Amino acid sequence: MYVPKFPTPEGQILDNWFKVFDEYMNIIDENTIMVGHSLGTAFILNILGRIEREIKAAFLVAPFVGLLGNPTFDTINKTFTDREFNWEKIRSNCKRFYVYSSDNDPYVPIDKGKFLAEKLNAMFRIIHGTRHFSESAGYTKFELLLKDIEKML
User: Fold this and answer.
1) pLDDT in tens, 68-117
2) DSSP codes joined into one string, 73-138
3) What's the whole-model pTM score?
4) 50: exposed, middle or buried (C-beta count within 10 Å: 0-12, 13-18, 19+)?
5) Is-contact 80 46, C-beta < 8 A?
6) Domain spans of the chain?
7) Which CATH superfamily is domain 14-21+30-152 in?
8) Helix or strand or coil: residue 86?
9) How far lies 85's CA from each of 47, 78, 111, in Å?
């Protein structure tokens, strides 16, 4: 398992994240499973739009593309999310997508998850009362996500 350390919030632009991720590009293959939360989901979609190989699965938690209507977040997220995505290429580079949205996320509207699930032909799961799936909201275990990943192994 690899967990890259991306610059955030200072230096949080797409090109900087790709510089960090470059060392992992050569290990991505048909057995790769990617898991992203919040902005990390948009980063995964950007990776899938660039690579020339198919991965096994992508698990997107509190996902979004586009702007959120929050000037603070939109300013630091726009290089990742406020762009055209090649949905056909993204879908062709991943065998299976799972999207998880909370019904009370204070940052990412549930419609963002629905939109991505439709674009990606993904399994869409609405999780009740988890806010932004963060420890600060008291969400420290995500058993359903673990079970879904285990199904892919």
Assistant:
1) 999 999 999 999 999 999 999 999 999 999 999 999 999 999 999 999 99
2) HHHHHHHHHSS---HHHHHHTEEEEEEEEETT-SSS-HHHHHHHHHHHT-EEEEETT-TTT-GGGT
3) 0.96
4) middle
5) yes
6) 14-21+30-152
7) Alpha/Beta hydrolase fold, catalytic domain (3.40.50.1820)
8) coil
9) 11, 13, 17
